[in-house]
Amino acid sequence: MAPAWCVPGESTKPVFVGIYGAVIGGFAVSALFFLLSSFSSLAAPPLPLPPAGAGAGNLSAAAAAGQPETMYNRPIWKPPPRGERMPPPGAFRLTREMVGARARGGVIVVTFGNHAFLDFILTWVRHLTGIGVDGLLVGAMDTKLLRELYLRGVPVFDMGSRMATEDAGWGTPTFHRMGREKVLLINALLPFGYELLMCDTDMVWLKNPLPYLARYPDADLLSSSDQVIPTVTDDSLENWREVTGAYNIGIFHWRPTEPAKRLAKDWKDLVLSDDKLWDQNAFNDLIRKNFGNPVVGQDELVYSYDGKLKLGVLPASIFCSGHTYFVQGMYQQLRLEPYAVHTTFQYAGTAGKRHRLREAMLFFDQPSYYDSPGGFLSFRPNIPKSLLLDGAHTVESHFALVNYQLKQIRTALAIAYLLKRTLVHVMLNDLPEAEFGPHIDFREYSFLENPSLPKQVKESFLEVELCNEHSTRCSTANRTNKGTTVLLPRNSTEKTLLDTFTSYKNIKILKFSSMVDAFRGFSDAAVDMKFRNRVKRYVGLWCCVQFREIGHIYYDMYWDEKPGWKPLPPQTKEEDHPPWT
């Protein structure tokens, strides 16, 4: 079966809502620290502040009963006292006592990661504490993360992984090692006798899931899935008979039953036998070994694995994948309230996951993120109705629609580059300045609507309206009048842009009415070449034309400079490369 994103070209219809995020955001791809027990006068590094009162209402059962406060039962977000020595490494070892101090109602919620995912982990914890769930633990795969979480008041244990602190790209040896660590962790936790809600760090909780999970007390395992077509229209478990998507191990709930423990052990043995085996594939293979007999009297559950493990599939409409939440908005269509969103179904790595959560205003950033020193630049997209509504939905009409917008984005990037402002729109990768010119910072399209945006930033804006250069309305005298709107001639030069906006450097947001023909281009050939080299890499590819050996088509930021350009897939393997190579 072809992947969910690989569909016949003739059956594909453009998605117009949030097209910039989908086209640009979705495709813009491209010191060993030792924990010492002798540290004193500890000070927590800067962090996104937790919601008001977040640390006050999550006392553990032990603390509420008047027992002495320890690192195990301390309220979340309450950092250790200043001047207190860092506990010895052994204090962070995962034990039954540690889990018991944090578990609530016999359930422990767990995630894990390395330092590269610190901001994801803080976001994950903030969402849980925000919905009143504090029965959680975070596994640290490196000691740098362990120390930082401890100083922030986040319950953390040492997984003993001694991993590097950098990001592990999907499919890399480090990625597979992280997967094996997850399986080992599940095997370590289940014998403690607590229910385990295991989560990846690239997901967030929107609603307390524990009451929902308690509705199915006989299930040994409740798993999320990659199902993109709903099999139910309410909040019941998926109809397992109709689920075709893979079981996704980014969100799943284990009960410490014997069948579950046997599955965990067999899973561990399987992934340890082959260091290239993807943990999720191994899990799915085991689950489907003896699958298909319904549990008598509980039709939503199915016997699986060894024919004794009772499995339920969490509904993808409310335990959402990236597709059902960000693309389909399935929970909205079915008028349901989502419990969780997992940032799957996107192909721009960790940066893409972060961007998607930011677009949905579900990610917690440092305050500095919302107040860039150079200010921001935004614009109102201009799309003719004919491109949206006229004619058949074909590959050609799709590229005509996207290319029209790419040209506007290209202009916006050029003006942001020139004025040293942050563009509120697209996602991009870091590139060396010597070859690609100065970095162009960005923010997601929903940035200006984010409640975390400071009032002083939101209210400091200037409207910029384009005008025809030779019209009276666009004369220098009219354009220089101070007010809430500035007129800018179409096809402005670098000098015009710099002269116009130099006096507005203290204005935080420039809001352009349009980017169509707003900038003539760079006069310096070297600057222009570096800019072109940079922005050409901000686009990816479209997939796929059916019945072709090479079915994808590359987007081209400078399509309009190539006479007769048409959206065609590469004809040969030699032609199969992005337009900048």
From TrEMBL:
Residue intervals passing through the bilayer: 15-36
**Domain Nucleotide-diphospho-sugar transferase: where?**
133-357
The protein depicted here goes by the name: Nucleotide-diphospho-sugar transferase domain-containing protein
Q: Which GO terms describe its biological process?
A: cell wall pectin biosynthetic process
Give an example GO molecular function.
arabinosyltransferase activity
Say if the entry is tagged with keyword Transmembrane helix: yes
Cite the entry's keywords alphabetically. Membrane, Transmembrane, Transmembrane helix
Note the InterPro entries from the entry. Answer: Glycosyltransferase_77, Nucl-diP-sugar_transferase
Question: Which Gene Ontology CC terms are recorded?
Answer: Golgi apparatus
Q: In its keyword annotation, does this UniProt entry include Transmembrane?
A: yes
